[in-house]
Design goal:
Layout (H helix, E strand, L loop, with lengths): L12 H14 L7 H7 L5 H8 L2 H6 L18 H15 L5 H6 L6 H8 L2 H11 L34 H10 L19 E5 L14 E5 H7 L3
Antiparallel strand pairs: 1-2
Length: 229
């Protein structure tokens, strides 16, 4: 006894081919993928097409259409400025030049591989950063802050009266000081383990403002030695 049953809802090969031809017309006979097919077809799914004909290429060949090649599309190009701004955010958060593991653990916007490929090496990427970041106009970048002032009432407390330093201001200070300790000259550009801090010149505890001219870049050792802030 043959227990196989004929499915009355089974779409025929002819109807699948017609569906492929209709989608091909929609894309002006430019080669399209299974996912692009699913976005347009209302009669069947790409999974059904592949199940019936074995693979996508063979399925399209059944249409008898000579497909045009897809026009070349440039992949989204990430500018050097975008890459460096992300590097600046990470080094500000971490305090020193990150290793691959440290970089990935902080879940940055761009991958380690992106930098390694663009600059032909991780160390080369950071060398480029330290040599060129000072040329970025931070005033025109929507960088955001690393402190939330959502609970601060407008016109009641000014930013300079808050101890926490907004990210954009921190980056401007680091940029001005060339990512070097203003006391000893130590920099993560030369030593990967150097940790940089943004310090109030006149201590905040003594009325010092959180503003550009009252901030400086110090390495961890010099900042700890200074104390009292």
């Amino acid at each position: 006894m043959n227990l196989n049953r004929h499915r009355i809802d089974r779409i025929s090969d002819e109807k699948i081919i017609v569906a492929l031809q209709e989608v091909a017309k929609h894309y002006d006979y430019v080669y399209f993928s299974r996912h692009e097919f699913d976005k347009v077809s209302k009669n069947c799914k790409g999974s059904v097409v592949i199940s019936r004909f074995g693979n996508w290429k063979d399925a399209l060949s059944k249409t008898g259409i000579k497909f045009k090649k897809k026009p070349y599309r440039n992949r989204y190009f990430i500018s050097n400025v975008e890459l460096m701004l992300e590097m600046a955010k990470i080094i500000d958060k971490l305090g020193h030049r990150p290793s691959k593991i440290e970089w990935e653990s902080l879940k940055p916007k761009y991958s380690y591989t992106t930098y390694k490929t663009r600059y032909k090496g991780w160390v080369n990427a950071w060398r480029y950063f330290f040599e060129n970041f000072k040329m970025i106009d931070l005033s025109s970048e929507n960088i955001g802050d690393n402190v939330s002032n959502s609970n601060v009432k407008p016109c009641t407390i000014m930013p300079e009266d808050i101890r926490s330093i907004p990210l954009k201001l921190r980056l401007k200070v680091l940029q001005r000081d060339n990512f070097k300790c203003v006391f000893c000259g130590a920099s993560p550009a030369n030593q990967s383990n150097i940790q940089l801090h943004i310090d109030h010149i006149k201590p905040f505890s003594e009325g010092g403002k959180t503003e550009y001219n009252n901030l400086q870049t110090l390495c961890q050792n010099c900042n700890w030695g200074k104390g009292n802030d």
